């Protein structure tokens, strides 16, 4: 994938590592896949369940409006494309 291709979640250019996210989870019948940074992908799944993603957050704009995702996006905005940091698990994040 070209360097200019944006991440579906954060809209930063993609780096060397790309993961593919199903906006509607496969377990809920989703087929479409979109390119995302690994850290963005992990944040999505650490923050929201598959049921929540399918019900209310299959659209990028809706997902970006979630308070925890919005905080993440503000934090990641100035990081390089291949930036990596540990992602809290869902249990630790929701406390």
UniProtKB/TrEMBL annotation:
GO terms for molecular function: endonuclease activity. Keywords: Endonuclease, Hydrolase, Nuclease. This is HNH endonuclease. It comes from Sphingobium yanoikuyae.
